[in-house]
Amino acid sequence: MNDHVKENLAQIEARIQAACDRSGRDRKDVLLIAVSKTKPAAMIREAIEAGIRDFGENKVQELCEKYEEIHGTDENGNEIHPPMNWHLIGHLQRNKVKYIVDKACLIHSVDSMRLAEEIQKEAVKKDCQVNVLVEVNIGEEETKSGVAKEEAAQLVKEISALDRVHIKGLMAIAPPADDPEESRIYFRQMARLREEIRQMELPGVEMKELSMGMTGDFEVAIEEGATMIRVGTAIFGGRVYIMERG
Ligand SMILES: *Cc1c(COP(=O)(O)O)cnc(C)c1O
């Protein structure tokens, strides 16, 4: 079991590079976020050793617990700063914002003005700046969070008025599919939407990032312009959820 993470990462790296080559993209323009949800801190450390710097968690509590574990203090009481960034990729409830604003380098899942206002409020309290992506429900799925694509531009515009909340781009999860090619149309729509919003030239809004693509479809996502891919299973293995839905 020991070198699995490292070996998996080497294989994924080759696939990322190949997808970049196929689509004429620079490998440096695609960030691999290792999704470590349900996996122990020890596996995060393994991935750090293998060179990964960005990690995604979908639950605030789990992110905070692992944060404590990994950013603990050494025997002299000094805080440890491992070379890594935390991304919150899952749905965020307003009452949990206060735990996360100063820990996540990027919140991928902002989908309402009320949530953005809560982030603004907590960022003022903690005197920090918060980077976010606006999550789009690109498959128009009832069960998924995210703003409707027709409303995304308006939401970005409203959020841009908040001086502590910095929009870096868009995020989406394609609907479940057996064939990664089925995700292509959604990823393409996301790239088009980013371009439309970019052309609005909203002050303080950077429409650079497109967070899309997971284990099943990250290569297609890269071909369609993803700048961040969120890969869990292919790095850390399958997840087992016990006594839990979702
Ligand atoms: C779990 C999760 C992922 C990673 O999924 P895999 O299929 O394991 O790669 C990516 N994005 C989000 C939002 C997730 O919740």
What can you tell me about this protein's structure?
Helix content is 37%, strand content 16%. It has 246 residues and is α/β, with parallel strands linked by helices. The protein has one domain: Alanine racemase (TIM Barrel), CATH 3.20.20. Strands 7-6-5-4-3-2-1-8 form an eight-stranded parallel beta sheet. The mean pLDDT is 95. Bound molecules: pyridoxal-5'-phosphate.
Structural Rg: 18 Å
Beta-strand content bin? 15-25%
Low-confidence stretches: none
Q: How far apart are the first and last residues' alpha carbons, in Å?
A: 27 Å
CATH-defined fold name: TIM Barrel
Mean pLDDT: 95
The percent of residues in helical segments reads: 25-40%
Written as H for each helix and E for each strand, in order along the chain, the element string is HEHEHEHEHEHEHEHEH
Main beta-sheet strand count, sense and barrel state: 8 strands, parallel
Structural class by sheet pairing and helices: alpha/beta
Topology:
Elements: H1 4-22, E1 31-35, H2 41-49, E2 54-57, H3 60-70, E3 85-88, H4 97-100, E4 104-110, H5 113-125, E5 130-135, H6 149-159, E6 165-171, H7 184-198, E7 209-211, H8 218-223, E8 228-231, H9 233-236
Parallel strand pairs: 1-2, 1-8, 2-3, 3-4, 4-5, 5-6, 6-7
Bound molecules: pyridoxal-5'-phosphate.
